[in-house]
Amino acid sequence: MTTSQPPAFPDGFLWGASTAAHQVEGNNVGSDFWQAEHDGSRGLPERSGDACDSFHRWPEDLDIARDLGLNAYRFSVEWARVVPAPGHPSAAMLDHYRRIIEGCGQRGLTPVVTLHHFTSPAWLSAGGGWTSGEAVAHFADYVRAVLPILDGVPWVCTINEPNMVALVAARRRHGGGEPVPSFVPPDPGVTAALARAHEEARDLLASVPGLRSGWTVANQNVQDHGAGPDRTAELSYLVDDQYIDLAKDDDFIGVQAYSRLRAGGDGVIAPGPDDRRTMMDWEYYPLALEDAVRHTAARLGGSTPLLVTENGIATADDDERIAYTTEAVTGLARAMADGIDVRGYLHWSLLDNYEWGSWTPTFGLVAVDRTTFRRTVKASARWFGRLVQDPAAVLGGKAAS
Question: Among all residues, which ones are annotated catalytic?
């Protein structure tokens, strides 16, 4: 599309930032990931520890989001805290998360709540995890426990990136010295369990007036770089499309995009030495968001609203974060101008946080001192705040292509 008009976003469009409980709260001692950090079972180089201490400092985090001019905040409720033992939900933890929800409202921030963001209670994993036969029922019990605190919450993500949860489960089967293939498809048993858990949660959440529910998909943006259309479509179905398809009856789908996956004649093409890469070793590809939004909308036939629940870059160069986000949001504007129904953009992440085994990659708009927990708002955060207030002025002619 070619246009000389600056990008326009509708009234009520959500502009915000996202976090995840285990990555920012600290001392999530009841979770399976905390256990893995300490027993060495996943070979994680660093531990989450106190993380960003957001369990206690969440009011400061919400103040920062408000002061930047954002109108939305995505965070997750931690299952392991809410249900520390099967059948025994914690009233104190439910009250804690309800206070965060109310804190959002007090600051003019729309809460976007995620119920499962990669971590599960250690007791669930000890009993066999998602394929145990009891997992779906346990998740439904957890959702029932959370329902009373969701009054007034308009957006709930049931499960974050089920394709990544299933992929990690498949790759873990290749541990113990067994070589890991260059591509491992997501675990079908875990995928089936997650789909059932999502459907159960969706039915339960429908009882809350005004609440929209859906899950989020980590869009891999599979592109044909020599594989051929049939193999590319097959790969896209395995890693993305089967999960997108399951959202057709949902109130929305969360789109999460960072880079792309190039399908070559001999398999997946990893970024090479000449490719520009991020701190996650992913290819620098700002068009990922536009590609993902267009692909998801086409896959669902335009019937399901989209919410960008994650997009960002791991970089130590704040100017690079601004450049990446500029291109990403400009691409989003192009897709919306073509009629795609997108309800909001939530940047990943509000804070530099624990990136699932390492503190090195920095995705945040806000830096966090690991010892004092002092928050330092970056230039990219202030730029993002200006973008939120006046997208046309900040992006201007960059919408043209």
Answer: 161
The domain that holds 243 is classified in CATH as 3.20.20.80
User: What is residue 386's DSSP assignment?
Assistant: H
Q: For the chain, what is the domain count?
A: 1
Tell me the pTM: 0.96
Rounded CA-CA distance 297/178 in Å is 39
Would you call the peptide bond into 349 cis, given omega within 30 degrees of 0 as the criterion? Answer: yes
**What is d(CA 17, CA 279) in angstroms, rounded to the nearest whole number?**
20
DSSP strands (E only) in 70-172: 72-76, 110-114, 155-160
Q: Does some domain include residue 291?
A: yes
Q: Is 165 exposed, middle or buried (0-12, 13-18, 19+ CB in 10 A)?
A: buried
What H or E segment, with its residue span, contains residue 358? none
Domain that holds residue 79: 14-399
Residue with tokens 């499309």: 241
Q: pLDDT of 42-65, one tens digit each?
A: 999 999 999 999 999 999 999 999
Is the CB of residue 320 less than 8 Å from the CB of residue 363?
no
Please check whether residue 8 lies inside any domain of the structure.
no
Each residue of 85-109: pLDDT tens digit?
999 999 999 999 999 999 999 999 9
Q: Can you tell me which residue has the tokens 């009011």?
A: 59
